[in-house]
Amino acid sequence: MKASQPYKYITAVKNGKHYVVFDFKDREGKRKRKWVNTELPEKCTKKALKEAVENIVEEFDKSITEGGVVIHDKKTTYAVLSDTNISQQPLGEFFSDWLAYIKPNVARTTHLCYRKTADRYLEYINENYPGLTLGAVNHNHIQNYLNYKLDKGVKGSSAKQYYLALHSAFAHAVKMELIPKHPMDKLVVPRADRHEATFYNSDELNELFEVFKGDKLELVVHIAAYYGLRRCEILGLRWDAIDFKNKTITIQRKIVSDYDDEGKMKLYVETRLKTNSTRRTLPLIPHIEELLLEKKKMETQFKKTCGKSYNKEFDGFICRDNLGKMITPNYVTQHFHYVVTKN
């Protein structure tokens, strides 16, 4: 089966806008990418996006016909399809395309997890099977990688996460007809370790609260202990999620860390939670209510004292320091570990 055009394209989101990304080879046979802005925001209707993409693709075709875009050997198809469906696309290039393709449709934390998995897998492949193309990947390459990670001491649950991410990537390759069949069909799925949770009793919790008394994480630790929320959910709490009148607390957003387009670590507010059941309203426990009211009182005082120096980037969020700076997920993990180990 021959592809109808000497290029391929995907849609991607960049700086809050939808783009059409064309992938082709120039006159000298060098791979090129052309980003065309649809001028549509990330949150738009599927119909509007489809119409914009069709118009842009039509204009791109026209520019090829008129010579505005010169593509290497028009008679030779540079799409990933071929008569035998064996793609010669470099593996790293495929993963880059796949990550760009799925980005608008998955949570940022999921995308970050997939990106890290792809980076680890490619590092192993480049060292052990240099030059491996997408069409040449078979189940042995992936099974050997998973066995390698397990031999290095990675837990079964982590290996299973790697398996699921890679399975999703190659399923995309099959769906887009880049390869004829899924290379992981014969794989042995890593068995996740059965997690045996241990819990603090009331005396241990009181000791923990005493250790964190006056600490920047005091409120975070208390909310985690009483509600069992994820760290990103606690940091995602805003004052509008606390209903002091009806005595409820609503979990509806989270704070996550990720790299921006310039490679700098940045905090992002996510309203897309892990599952629908994750978005929930819970009773406002009196002890937590007291801590929140005290926090609100202290915040008002510090805002007044600091004036213009008070950080307002995340205004409205609860878990900030005395100068208004947001507490980060990494700080929660690292500082909690430090305090517990120290004591």
Describe the structure.
- The protein has helices at residues 46-65, 91-102, 108-128, 139-151, 156-175, 202-211, 218-227, 231-235, 286-306, 329-342; strands at 8-14, 17-25, 31-41, 242-243, 248-251, 254-259, 265-270, 280-283.
- With 343 residues, it is an alpha+beta fold.
- The chain has a 3-stranded antiparallel β-sheet with strand order 1-2-3. Strands 4-5-8 form a 3-stranded antiparallel β-sheet, with no helix packed on it.
- A hairpin with a 5-residue loop joins β6 and β7.
- α2 runs antiparallel to α3.
- The longest helix is centred in the middle third of the chain and has 21 residues, at 108-128.
- The model is unreliable at 73-85 (pLDDT under 50).
